[in-house]
C-alpha cells in the first residue's frame, strides 16, 4: 500500500505518522502532548472510573484533522500512550 509522503529539507523521503488514538489506561494527564502540539489537536477530558466513582483528567484528541504527522506528542509522552498510523495515498 502506498502512503502519503513528503520530503525533508535535505531531500529525503518522509512518511508522516498521524495520531490514531490515546490509550487512556496509560495516560496520566500530564499535558506534555498538549504543550508540544502547535496544532491544537489535544484537549483535557474527564475520565470517570465507575468502580471507585472518581474522576481523573486525561488528554483526548479533540481535533485530529489538524494533525500534521510530526509525532512530537508521542516522543514527549513518557507513558507511550499514543498510537500512530501513516495515511494511505
Would you mind describing this structure in some detail?
With 89 residues, the protein is mainly β. The chain has 2 helices and 6 strands. It has a two-stranded antiparallel ribbon with strand order 1-2. Strand 1 and strand 2 form a beta hairpin. The N and C termini lie close together (8 Å).
Radius of gyration equals 15 Å
Strand order in the largest sheet: 1-2
The biggest sheet amounts to: 2 strands, antiparallel
The overall average pLDDT, rounded, is: 96
Question: Uncertain spans, ≥5 residues at pLDDT below 50?
Answer: none
- The backbone outline, from C-alpha atoms, is elongated
In short:
This protein is mainly beta. The chain has two helices and six strands; from the N terminus they run βββαββαβ.
Key words describing this protein structure:
two-stranded antiparallel sheet; mainly beta; 89 residues; 2 helices
Chain-wise SSE layout:
Blueprint: E1 6-7, E2 13-14, E3 18-22, H1 32-36, E4 42-49, E5 54-61, H2 72-76, E6 82-85
Antiparallel strand pairs: 1-2, 3-6, 4-5
